[in-house]
Write a structure and sequence with these properties.
6-stranded parallel sheet, alpha/beta, 3-stranded parallel sheet, Rossmann fold, 10 helices
Length: 291
């Protein structure tokens, strides 16, 4: 069993991004610039956005963090996005989800200029991805592809089971794993909370990508020997042995599943760092387009 180490892989990819960024600055006088919008004070969202801003600094990107109270109206938020769309210094725009209930995620995502949609959530971006046209890939699926590529895992002909059907991870992951590319060329089954006899399907999988948002949902009896398991889940559970009283676990029962796997991602330090790599690679590509 080999651990797919998101920290090590992301360090390698960030080194490449930093070199490309320095070259872009030297040759074109262009510095990639990411704008992040954070609404409210959700601790997890604060941590995610803080990590993205720090990574921008590490790579030599510019960054702008716009903070709003939870009381901000949808109209106010859309006006801010309009300003960012029109700002030539800004290459990428991300809005940290989830948003308060009175603000429509779709309205906000749809308002972002597709040329600055570095999270890969806009309908035009996802439509281009579906058709195999050049586009920004959603950051988490992109990060997973980068990880598979780094470890030279040939996915052609494999049976890939994706558990979860969100527009952020599950659905785009099925498209990307089935396309004529490497990684890709897999036969893909998408499963979800209403799938009957899920274990019978997952036991046939060469690759399982778990993105259902349920702690330790994938158990050892659902996984065949030698499978590759990618755990996208980040769930906080109670743990009296920890000083904080809680800890992070994935959607996979790691301790019991790992011994059966050829490769597996840990949680944390697996897919999470790769998501940020996907975001940063998209931002760099956007900057190249905006020279």
């Amino acid at each position: 069993m080999q651990i797919l180490d998101g920290i090590a892989v992301s360090a390698h990819i960030k080194s490449q991004i930093k070199q490309e960024t320095e070259k872009l600055k030297a040759e074109k006088g262009k510095t990639p610039h990411l704008a992040a919008i954070l609404v409210g004070h959700n601790p997890a969202s604060e941590a995610y956005v803080g990590n993205k801003v720090r990574t921008c600094e590490e790579l030599g990107f510019g960054s702008t963090l716009l903070r709003f109270e939870e009381s901000v109206t949808e109209a106010q938020l859309l006006e801010e996005i309009k300003k960012l769309n029109g700002d030539n210094k800004i290459d990428g725009i991300l809005v940290q989800l989830p948003l308060p209930e009175h603000i429509s995620d779709n309205a906000v995502i749809n308002a972002i200029d597709p040329g600055k949609d570095v999270d890969g959530f806009h309908p035009i971006t996802q439509g281009k991805m579906l058709l195999g046209q050049p586009s920004f890939l959603p950051a988490t699926p992109y990060g997973i592809l980068l990880m598979l590529e780094h470890y030279n895992i040939n996915t052609a002909g494999m049976h890939c089971v994706v558990i979860g059907r969100s527009n952020i991870v599950g659905t785009p992951m099925t498209v990307l794993m089935s396309r004529n590319a490497q990684p890709g060329n897999a036969t893909v089954t998408i499963c979800h909370s209403k799938t009957k006899d899920l274990a019978a399907i997952t036991k046939t999988a060469d690759i399982i990508i778990a993105a259902i948002g349920r702690p330790r949902f994938v158990t050892a009896d659902m996984v065949k020997e030698g499978a590759i398991v990618i755990d996208v889940g980040i769930n906080r559970i109670d743990d009296a042995t920890r000083k904080s009283g809680s800890r992070l676990v994935g959607d996979v029962d790691y301790d019991n599943v790992a011994p059966k796997c050829s490769y597996i991602t840990p949680v944390p330090k697996g897919v999470g760092p790769m998501t940020i790599c996907g975001l940063m690679k998209n931002t760099l590509e956007a900057a190249k387009e905006h020279v």
